[in-house]
Fold this sequence. Notes:
Layout: H1 7-25, H2 32-40, H3 43-51, H4 58-90, H5 102-111, E1 117-118, E2 125-126, H6 133-151, H7 158-175, H8 186-204, H9 212-231, E3 236-237, E4 242-243, H10 246-271, H11 274-284, H12 286-299, H13 302-309, H14 312-336, H15 338-344, H16 352-363
Antiparallel strand pairs: 1-2, 3-4
Amino acid sequence: MxxxxxxxxxxxxxxxxxxxxxxxxxxxxxxxxxxMVYAINVPIFFILSGYLYRPQKIKVQCKKLFYNLLVxxxxxxxxxxxxxxxxxxxxxxxxxxxYGSFTSVLSAGIWGMGSPTRLIGTHYIMPAIxxxxxxxxxxxxxxxxxxxxKSLIKVKGSFWLVGIISIVSMAFGFISIIPGYIPWSMNxxxxxxxxxxxxxxxxxxxxxxxxxxxxxxxxxxxxCLWIISELTNTHFGLNIATSNHPLISILSxxxxxxxxxxxxxxxxxxxxxRILYYLxxxxxxxxxxxSMHIIDVDLFTFSAxxxxxxxxxxxxxxxxxxxxxxxxxxxxxxxxxxxxRSIFFNREWPFKFxxxxxxxxxxx
Length: 364
């Protein structure tokens, strides 16, 4: 049975997806706006995952993570591969092009990296699959965090011990890129583990249960930390575990996430209604949005054509709107095809063999 959705959480997810789309639409991602966008666009999802954490049996969790994260990753990669191979034979169309050769796209899907990076200990450059690298990193972090929490539960101060481990992991994530990158976005996952822990910390200190004044102070403090990334020209590339100011990047990401969580929780309480519900659907289906968006970014070429024809500021706004529209079309399209919807909406529409397996286990 599906649990009741929490509107503010889906609103935060929707905000995070809009930030990812904005980041991919900026002509200068290292500018002032880009610094603030990249400070939060992916970290917020790790922090939300930590906020929602609850202990699970490792075997059960592995199955859930496989179907809810890795299957959509594989499905998205195969869609990009199939379309690219088709276009390699037919030639590009006006607004769509191949992402590369069969070998390069297949390799990108296998390596699971967000940007082209050097394989650790070699001179080989691993091709990038794009923003769905995040699914790999979240898979590792969700699993590792649960293992740590369960295995250390009998240790006094276990939560804080996990926090220390996550800090060490974060530091290693930044340092480990020096000899090269580990496949499947593991370098990013080393950093992401700390964000998972911070999300659980936010939950444990009950930031949303505080009185209005305390929440306002938390929110303003978080916004100040967020702004620091712009004032110091700090750019955070979590996908490749890099930052020109790592400590500021971490503080800014945590502060921004704290502020956004409080803001949308307050919005739900004040304006709860049908409009918020419909807006929250974009966050509820954020995984399908991400998958469709990366198909869009990897294969569609309208962005370059728009930038070439009109002023940059107007072009950026139009590109963002078009990306959002395409992602919404993707949600509708994915949900309308039986097998595809089991890939991207597995909680609602599991594969037939999953249902049969559950019935078999129940009868036993």
